């Protein structure tokens, strides 16, 4: 089940770009330009995490944080251009779990949301295995043998889940692309190669070790390492 995120940001371009990124990362995102109808919106569409700007028309982000904090089990990330320590302390005192200053890296925001969701729901990474890479399908995280967790997009999760079902066995390229992303053969192949390249780079940067995901000539890709899949 995806993490449900409510993004409240009055800058149209930033709201659209963040919503697009977070949706691509596998979140279920609803976006709004103000917090005027926050209570009604959260009643209709409960959110796991609310990402709040402070400088909003009408009720500001501080007022919105008070409203959200009345709902147990909802995390608050303040994402704002206000960098003064007084604003940061005020936001945290109202119950914000994280306070991020713009411009923020969308990938960092993604990780903050995933980690916050895990803490709220009482989830934890699987205990690290001395040798195995572990795919946590519930939290959409790949844990390295050293226990470092890497958040995954929907496409990355699909790719790894298929590969880790049979470590050491080459998997055809077409099976590694999420069904909704399949187009013509050429564009699908290019998209897969880009996905694999970016995933390898992301994992190596986060874990300081290469991901054992290798090309299988004439077939597709193979996961050449010990792996486990956890669904709980």
Automatic annotation (TrEMBL):
| Record-annotated DNA-binding residue ranges | 125-225
Q: Which InterPro entries match?
A: CheY-like_superfamily, OmpR/PhoB-type_DNA-bd, Sig_transdc_resp-reg_C-effctor, Sig_transdc_resp-reg_receiver, WalR-like, WH-like_DNA-bd_sf
An example molecular function term from Gene Ontology annotations:
transcription cis-regulatory region binding
Q: Where is the OmpR/PhoB-type domain?
A: 125-225
Every copy of the Response regulatory domain together lies at: 4-117
Supply one GO CC term from the record: cytosol
Q: Which residues carry this modification: 4-aspartylphosphate?
A: 53
Among the record's GO biological process terms, what is one? regulation of DNA-templated transcription
> What's in the keyword line of the UniProt record?
DNA-binding, Phosphoprotein, Transcription, Transcription regulation, Two-component regulatory system
Tell me if Oxidoreductase is a UniProt keyword of this record: no
What SUPFAM superfamilies does the record tag this protein with?
C-terminal effector domain of the bipartite response regulators, CheY-like
According to UniProt, the name of this protein is: Winged helix family two component transcriptional regulator
Q: Which organism is it from?
A: Aquabacter spiritensis
């Amino acid at each position: 089940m995806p993490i449900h995120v409510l993004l409240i940001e009055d800058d149209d371009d930033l709201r659209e770009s963040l919503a697009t990124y977070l949706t691509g990362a596998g979140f279920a995102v609803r976006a709004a330009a103000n917090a005027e109808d926050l209570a009604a919106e959260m009643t209709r569409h409960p959110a796991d995490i609310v990402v709040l700007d402070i400088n909003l028309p009408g009720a500001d982000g501080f007022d919105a944080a008070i409203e959200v904090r009345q709902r147990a089990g909802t995390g608050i990330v303040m994402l704002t251009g206000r960098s003064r320590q007084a604003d940061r302390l005020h936001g945290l005192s109202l119950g914000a779990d994280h306070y991020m200053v713009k411009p923020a890296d969308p990938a960092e925001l993604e990780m903050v949301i995933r980690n916050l969701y895990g803490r709220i729901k009482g989830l934890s990474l699987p205990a690290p295995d001395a040798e195995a890479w572990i795919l946590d399908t519930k939290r959409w995280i790949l844990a390295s043998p050293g226990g470092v967790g890497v958040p995954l997009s929907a496409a990355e999760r699909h790719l790894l889940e298929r590969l880790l079902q049979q470590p050491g066995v080459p998997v055809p390229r077409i099976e590694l692309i999420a069904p909704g992303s399949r187009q013509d053969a050429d564009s699908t192949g290019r998209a897969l190669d880009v996905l694999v390249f970016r995933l390898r780079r992301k994992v190596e940067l986060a874990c300081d070790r290469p991901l054992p995901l290798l090309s299988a000539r004439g077939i597709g890709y193979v996961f050449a390492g010990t792996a486990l899949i956890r669904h709980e």
